[in-house]
Amino acid sequence: MKNGQNRKDIRAGLEVDIVLKQDQRTGKLTRGIVKDILTNSPTHHRGIKVRLQDGQIGRVQHIIDTE
């Protein structure tokens, strides 16, 4: 399982675990499918920010291996 700190590892359609802004203190994860990548820089130490297909926005913590 990869962490979500490298933009090159993330693409639309991937299943990921994100932490929503309101869940940053607790670390509660939300699983979903990436719709858009919102972070422009190639890396981010807290995770690349994405929008899920259901509209939720958060930082990727884990990329779920689909292989």
Please report the distance between the alpha carbons of the first and last residues: 10 Å
In the predicted model, the low-confidence regions spanning at least 5 consecutive residues are: none
Order of helices and strands: EEEE
And the CATH topology? SH3 type barrels
Radius of gyration: 10 Å
Q: What structural class is derived from the secondary structure elements? A: mainly beta
Task: Give the total of beta strands.
Answer: 4
Shape: globular
User: In percent terms, what proportion of residues is strand?
Assistant: 35-45%
The pLDDT mean sits at 94
Describe the sheet with the most strands: 4 strands, antiparallel, barrel
CATH architecture: Roll
Quaternary state of this entry equals: single chain
- Tally of DSSP helical segments: 0
Domain module tally: 1
Strand arrangement in the largest pleated sheet: 1-2-3-4
Name the features.
67 residues, mainly beta, SH3 type barrels, 4-stranded antiparallel β-barrel, globular
Structure description:
β1 (about 15-20) and β2 form a beta hairpin. The protein is built from no helices and 4 strands. The model has no long low-confidence stretch (mean pLDDT about 95). It is mainly β. It has a 4-stranded antiparallel beta barrel. The termini are close together. It is globular. It has a single domain (about 5-65), classed as SH3 type barrels.
Question: What are the SSEs and their pairings?
Answer:
Blueprint: E1 15-20, E2 29-37, E3 49-52, E4 57-63
Antiparallel strand pairs: 1-2, 1-4, 2-3, 3-4
